[in-house]
Structures are given as C-alpha cells and as structure tokens.
Design a protein that fits this description.
- The protein has about 210 residues and is mostly helical.
- The protein has 2 domains: about 1-80, DNA polymerase, domain 1 (Orthogonal Bundle); about 85-205, Rossmann fold (3-Layer(aba) Sandwich).
- It is about 50% helix and about 10% strand.
- It contains 10 helices and 5 strands; from the N terminus they run αααααβαβααβαββα.
- It has helices at about 1-10, 15-35, 40-60, 65-80, 85-100, 115-120, 130-135, 140-150, 165-175, 200-205, and strands at about 105, 130, 160-165, 180-185, 195.
- A 3-stranded parallel sheet has the order 3-4-5, covered by helices on one side. The chain has a two-stranded parallel sheet with strand order 1-2.
- Helix 2 (about 15-35) runs antiparallel to helix 3.
- The radius of gyration is 18 Å and the shape is elongated.
- It starts with a helix and ends with a helix.
C-alpha cells in the first residue's frame, strides 16, 4: 500500500529503499514522542501521521506527501478490509471467554482502534480497551497496564499480559507487576524463555 501510493505520488524508489525509510521514520517519530501520547492524542493524530509519512517521503527523495496521497493512505488503514485476523485469534478468545476470564486490550495505537475492533467483530471479547492515544500514556509505562487492571477489577499479579514486543509488552508488563508471555510468531527471540508461537498455546499455559 505504501509503495503504491508513494509511487502514484511521484516518488521513485526500490523496495529496499522504502523498507529502510519506513523503519527509520518510525523509529524517529517514536523516539521524539518519548513513549507518551505517541500518536498525538485524539486531537493530534492527523499531524502525527502526516509527520510520519512526510519523513518517509523525505528519506526516499526529499519530497513531501501530497494531501491526496495522505487521504488515500488514511482511508485505507482505517478500513477493516485492510486488516487480517490470524487463524488462532477468535478460537482462543472464545475459549478464554468460556473460562470466564476477564480480557482487555492494552495497545499503543491511535484512537480509531476501538472502532476497528468493533468492525472486525473482536470488541465482544474485550470489556476494556486501553489505547495509548486515548490514555495519553503507552507501553512500556506501567500506568497503562495498571489502568487496564483497575478497570477489569483485577490485581496486576493476578493478570497475564501477552504481546509481541520484548520491551513494550514483556518488560513493560512485568514492571507493572503482571505476569507476561512474549508472542513470537516468527521465532525471532529463541533466547526468551517465556514465549509462545501462537495464541492457541495460551489455554495450555494457563493450566
């Protein structure tokens, strides 16, 4: 999607160029956000994404993203059709719900996430959705984990957090007093003992 829209916007680049530009821009904007209100908050999200996309374009050819390209990209990623759900997700959430476990989402994301979850039919599993742009604090800060626990009316040490980032999810949750597992679908962290390759492993781990 990025390649198609940047090319239509007049940029010339290789696949490797785009990959490097996306990674560099993402690291830069997140570093500047310092982990707090990283998506610009509810009122500042368009400017956050414009800054990110303009940095990508500047790394490619020194240009800027046109309003038309920005609108098309924003519309695409806000559409539920742009997202796919892993095969292990719904069946695992259904099993955890049958066990009467309280489930929450704790995510570094913009304020559109609750609507996206609803459009994908996943909101029914989560009475609590804590999103960094709305909370104005994000992982790995312990505060966002503690807020989710408070809203579920559980204590941190009674809770298990699962996510795919060592720093934001595994270390962040543990710093807040939760148990944690790393979701490592691509086997990128064989040195981490507390990891799973699929959400389907969760019920067995809870045993």
């Amino acid at each position: 999607m990025y390649a198609r829209e940047f090319a239509a916007d007049g940029a010339r680049f290789s696949e490797e160029d785009l990959g490097r530009a996306l990674t560099r821009a993402w690291e830069e904007v997140h570093s500047n956000a310092r982990g707090v209100d990283r998506y610009g908050g509810v009122r500042g999200e368009p400017e956050f994404w414009k800054t990110f996309l303009n940095r990508v374009r500047s790394f490619l050819d020194g240009g800027a993203v046109s309003p038309t390209a920005f609108s098309r990209l924003a519309e695409h990623f806000r559409s539920p059709r742009a997202w796919a759900i892993y095969d292990d997700v719904v069946s695992t959430l259904e099993e955890l719900s049958r066990r009467d476990l309280k489930l929450a989402v704790v995510s570094n994301w913009d304020s559109h996430l609750p609507r996206l979850l609803a459009a994908l039919g996943l909101d029914r599993f989560f009475p609590v959705v804590a999103v960094s742009a709305i909370e104005e604090v994000g992982k790995p800060d312990p505060e966002i984990f503690r807020r989710a626990c408070d809203r579920l009316r559980v204590r941190p040490f009674e809770s298990l957090h699962i996510g795919d980032s060592v720093t934001e999810d595994l270390d962040g949750a543990r710093a807040a007093g939760l148990l944690a597992l790393l979701l490592d679908r691509r086997d990128a962290h064989p040195d981490v003992a507390d990891r799973i390759r699929s959400l389907g492993e969760i019920p067995g781990r809870l045993e």
